[in-house]
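To: structure subgroup
Subject: Chain for Friday's discussion

All,

I'm putting the inputs and outputs inline so they're searchable in the archive.
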Amino acid sequence: MSGRKSIGESIFDATNNVFMFFMILITLYPLLYILFASLSDPVRVMQGNRIIFAPSGFSLDAYKAVFKNPSILSGFKNTIIYVGLGTCINMLLTVFGAFALAKKGLYGRKLFMFIIVFTMFFNGGLIPAYLLIKSLAFTDTLWAIVLPNAISTMNLIIMRTSFHGIPDSISESAKIDGANDIIVLFRLYIPISIPVMAVIILYYAVGHWNSWFAASIYLKRRELFPIQLILREILVLNNTDNMMIGAAVTDAQPIGETLKYATIIIATIPILIVYPFLQKYFVKGMMVGSLKE
């Protein structure tokens, strides 16, 4: 059988390549525009100079203002804490819950699954959730950010499906050798399910990193604000008055414009750095975790 492509296949491949190039350009250009604007001269940005394929002038004043500002640095610190602690709690509860639900001998397993899936479609609403958090004395604490969404129903189902696909003979042979459920989980199930776990860790971490609504509801002390809530103040509320630490009065407004773009870049880079290390697990993990019984 000849390995040469027909004219139709070549045209199809060329069309796909052109289409994908424009899709990448459309997706990537907004981020490049923000990067160019953050590196541009603040005065030129204020004057409306066009920023298309390169920065208009070159200045690092916006990034200097970002790293000098205590609110932004505090927001980064808080976000890292919320992401680290929250993701650990998420994974611990998700793995334990999925392992229990994957056991075929669990009494009432279908009822538990029904109750869990029910929560995907119905919940108590914002006001009952706030009253619950307030009654637990979690307001103005980090627990208000990491505990209310400790388990994602979709991630739990994906992890449970992955565990359910592991042959029973593996765990049975381990138990014959004297292993208990904890050893079976941590020595067998988790190593086998690394691709799925990598995907779920990414989902949880990105969710915590991008979260701002819960913080705006439950947190009043500014020193507990995550970076996304600080970024919201800058972009939506246009509050850059407190961000000009060390800037001259005449430079405050121009730097305020480029500061918005610089803060977006700084808030986006960590996730962009983490994603390539988990990308190799992404497709495999989604395929394994999405298989039906």
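Points worth raising on Friday:
Residues 60-289 form a domain with the MetI-like fold fold (CATH 1.10.3720.10).
The chain has one domain: 60-289.

D.
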